[in-house]
Amino acid sequence: MSAPSSRKLITFDWAMKRLLRSKANFEILEGFLSELLGEDIFILEILESESNKESRRDKSNRVDLKVKNSKSEFIIIEVQFDRELDYLQRMLYGTSRVITEHQKEGKAYATLVKVISVNILYFDFGHGSDYIYHGITTFMGIHDHDTLELDVRQQKQYGKIQINNIYPEYYLIRINNFNRIATTSLDEWIYFLKNEEIKDEFKAKGIQKAKKSFSLMSLSENEQLAYARYQDDLRYQASLVESNYGLGRLEGKEEGRLEGKEEGRLEGKEEGRIEGKEEGRIEGKEEGRIEGKEEGIEQGKVEVAERLVAKGMSAEEAAAIAGIDVQLLRH
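Given the sequence above, the corresponding structure tokens read:
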């Protein structure tokens, strides 16, 4: 294998903001999407919408494309790069907005466009061992556990075979989970997305074109300066996130410690009260048993003395034999 190239490449998110919107570079994004979706994708145009407008405060990099696949279906593909805790809701909102933005007024629902949301995530997201997840919509029977299918009339009306072909699809690419050698053409793209490096031997569709176009040295001086500022801004945002996370963690730990201490004090007080009550009950029972036993013995001695007196013995003699005070016989 040849040695990896030392050429410095710009990041994919920056390319999406600047380079991939040009028709001259459609081949690059077509290659990536073709490898991901497993079929040839051809970009027809960049769709103008609110989601494609640049903003200095915009933390996402999103391109809405109108494409054509091998089955001559028209699809809108959304590519996003972001760092947000509520990202699942963002995905849902994004696909919903694309559908409504590009649905012409007065058209039947059967003409709704198909949306594929491709999400490139450079932050830890959810729990799972894989680095690419694919989500579709299916309807399962509650009792028979069968999958609902389109009938022949619906297939003809919608031009679709399966129900999931109607609803949006989602691809989640978890870059941080990719820790392997690129063994497939799709892996080559994921390797680039993580390492900003394209090896000479990579053969994925469009990837060598990306290696040439994404070279930092190929940018103008102004573009290089803009790219440097963009990277500085990303690092600043990452620092803010990390700082806020660290502060929140410390505050949460301190609050948890204080709450735990207070709860422990209250619980200890309650447990002590219960234990004290239980110990008191046990001790009282034991003392009562002992006292009752002693009282019973004393009463028995009195009864013996009384029987002796009844047989004609004097009170003094009977008390002396029973081992009690003579006064107990005289009361």
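The radius of gyration is 41 Å. Try to locate this feature in the token string yourself.
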